Amino acid sequence: MGGVFRLRRGKALVVCGVPLVGLIAAAVLAPLPFSVAVPGLTANVLGTYKGAQVVTVTGVPTRRTSGQLRMTTIAATGPAQDVYLGDVVDGWFRTDQAVMPRDSVYPGGGNTREIERRNTEEMRKSQNTATAAALAYLGRSPSEVHVRLRLANVGGPSAGLLFSLGIVDKLAGDGKGGDLTGGRVVAGTGTITSRGSVGAVGGVALKTQAARRDGATVFLVPEAECSDARAELPKGLRLVPVSTLKGAVQALRALKSGGSVPSC
User: Fold this and answer.
1) Could you tell me the pTM of the whole model?
2) Same domain for 209 and 143
C-alpha cells in the first residue's frame, strides 16, 4: 500500500510540474513594467555643456565664478525597451543600478516621441520657474535681467534648483564678493517653484553616485529624500538637505564660512 502511495504521489508531482515550469518560463521570458536606471550624466551649470554656455545672463553686470554647480541625472531604459525578470533580479542586488516602476520614470506613459516632447516641455517650464525663483530671491526685475538657460538633450524638471543657484552665483555670489560654491564642486538635484520651494525628484541614490564620480564633495538633496540619498551614499560626499532656494544659499554660505550646516 505504501509503495503505491509514493508512486502515485510521484506521478502527481511530475504532472503538476509541467504547468509550473511553464509559468516560471513565462515569468522569465515575459517583459515586465519596470525600467532599470543607472547613474547618468552631470553638467556644471556655471560652465558649458556640449559647447554651449548653460546659464547666460545679460542686461546687468555678472561675476566670474570658480567652483562648480553640477546638476545630476539618471539614465534609464527607454519606454519601448523590454525589461525581463533577469534584469530586475540583477538590478535589485546591485548598488549601481535601481529597478523602478516604468510609470515612475515615465509618468503619463506614451511612446518615446511623446515622452521626449513632455520631458522637453518640463525642462522649459523648469528653466522658467528657476529664473523666476532666482530673480525673486535677489530682488531683481525680469525686465532688466535677461537669462538664457541651455542644456541640450536633457529633459525633465529636476535641474530647477541648480539652475536657480547658477543664476544667483553669476549675479551675486555669496553676497560678500566671493563664490557661492567656495571653489568646491557642489552637485545636487531638486525641482523648484517660482517662489523658491524645492521639491523631490526620485533616483537620488543614483544621482549621488554620478555626482561623486564627477568630483563633487557636496550634494544638495531635497529634504524629503534624505533617507533615500543616504541609502548608497558614496564615501567623500556630504549630504545637505534643502527645502527652499533661500535655504540652499544659506547652507552653501555656511559651508564656506565654517558655520552650522544642516545634514541628513
Assistant:
1) 0.84
2) yes
